[in-house]
UniProtKB/TrEMBL annotation:
One Gene Ontology molecular-function label: deaminase activity
Gene assigned in the entry: Hrsp12
Domain of life: Eukaryota
InterPro entries: RidA, RidA_CS, RutC-like_sf, YjgF/YER057c/UK114
Species annotation: Phallusia mammillata
UniProt similarity note: Belongs to the RutC family.
Protein name, as recorded: Ribonuclease UK114
CC annotations in GO: cytosol; mitochondrion
Length: 133
């Protein structure tokens, strides 16, 4: 019996903020990419682009887009996202921005309110993508 070895490829780009802990921006296994949670930090300054949930959501998704691009993928390859919110009342505002990046057929999604997010972010979004190649 042949046992195949799982090959993990770390995906990293300077066009998204560096990890602020012991994790990778993304890890690819075969055709599946696991993108770590992204918050609304500027890659250049590592500061939030704004204090409102809309600007943070937009930047978090721009950061995610850069990571997807580094793996030769796009938002169209995303099959599942998880959205973490500092305040569940922000869901509709986040959803409005989210729809600028994701088009039908939309990925599966879960959304939760979290007691605290890294650096007191208003939103954090993680994703799983599958390459169509």
């Amino acid at each position: 019996m042949s046992v195949s070895k799982i090959v993990r490829k770390v995906i990293s780009t300077t066009k998204a903020p560096a990890a602020i802990g012991a994790y990778s921006q993304a890890v690819q296994v075969d055709q599946t990419l696991y993108v770590s949670g992204q918050i609304g930090l500027s890659p250049e300054t590592s500061d939030f682009v704004g204090s409102d949930v809309e600007s943070q959501t937009e930047q978090a998704l721009k950061n995610m887009g850069e990571i997807l691009s580094a793996a030769n993928m796009s938002f169209a390859d995303v099959v599942k996202t998880t959205v973490l919110l500092a305040d569940i009342q922000d869901f509709a505002r986040v959803n409005t921005v989210y729809q600028k990046f994701f088009k039908a057929p939309y990925p599966a999604r879960a959304a939760y309110a979290a007691a605290n997010l890294p650096k007191l972010a208003r939103v954090e979004i993680e994703a799983i993508a599958v390459s169509s190649d």
